[in-house]
Amino acid sequence: MPANRSASLRRAVAAVAALPLLTLAACGYGSEAKADNAKEKVAAGSKKIDGLDTVKIGYFGNLTHGTALVGRDQGIFQKALGATKASYATFNAGPSEIEALNAGSIDIGWIGPSPAINGYTKSGGKSLRIIGGSASGGVKLVVDPAKIKSVGDLKGKKIATPQLGNTQDVAFLNWISEQGWKVDAQSGKGDVTVVRSDNKVTPDAFKAGSIDGAWVPEPTASKLVAEGGKVLLDEASLWPGKKFVITNIIVSQKFLAAHPQVVEAVLKGAVETNKWIGAHPAEAKAAANRQLEADSGKALPANVLDPAWSSIQFIDDPLAATLGTEAAHAVKAGLLKQPDLKGIYDLSILNKVLKAEGEPTVDAAGLGVS
Hints:
By secondary structure, this protein is of the alpha/beta class. The protein is 42% helix and 17% strand. The chain has helices spanning 3-17, 19-25, 66-73, 76-81, 94-103, 113-122, 167-178, 202-208, 220-226, 253-258, 260-279, 281-296, 302-310, 320-332, 348-356; strands at 31-32, 54-60, 85-91, 108-111, 128-137, 139-143, 158-161, 193-196, 213-217, 230-234, 245-252, 312-314. Helix 3 packs across helix 11 (260-279), helix 11 (260-279) packs across helix 12 (281-296) and helix 11 packs across helix 15. Residues 1-28 have low confidence and may be disordered.
């Protein structure tokens, strides 16, 4: 084995072995993002909303959280909040963000559907509400084309997902079952081996050959393609209209009750950001990459950024019906007991904002508050 490939393999094995440590590290309350962007400064003469000094906002360093990335980079949230300062924390995993929300370390967050469902059900419906949509799409099954040329070739292979029970893990397990294959959801062992691998280490593991592919969100999917992978399946192709929720906006119920005007300001910022993304796609892509660099110290190269960005739709609709379907998939996989999701959505403020903007309102698919 060549020395460089041997070294890559050792790094990948070490990285996968360290996953429990990474999971423990992710149980903190996120890392504080730097506030050195001039557009984030409070404008002179601005007034606080509800008399509140600060609103604490969380998001992931994923392009599927592009509304948060672009809205922050462009100062759109801060402008909507006036003199109420927007502070930010970044997260690597949904459970750590839910933990932070429950602890009051953040007030509002961008998050995937599975952790939102888990957070809501584990609290007996008392911890959070989904108050808006943010993104659809941006998830792909990327494989090593030398080992896997068709769906049938996946049998017996090792395929990574980001985390046990996360949104992509549930989607992949459901897809596996639809192929007629058996996999134990907890261990990941079966006709296909599901390897739970942090998105940060998955590209190295793929390059070293310790996994044969991955069902992952952007930009990880495009990073694998840049390493020689091939897209075998775009998850959007499995959904009606090729739309499914990948990112929502959540808020703690306590904060929503105490500061509805601040929540409205953040949602105004989100709607304005999505509209700006649609009108300025190239500038928005660059803005998201700037914020990723500010948060992580590293920007994405064009051969990763361009295809990743083009596969994501930024929308205000939370696509509530698809969240119900994703919950059903988790139940089917044995990762979730049949949940009562009635009340997980409160879209009243978002619909108020949309009406004011002359945009169509959105529906909670029967899962809204009474």
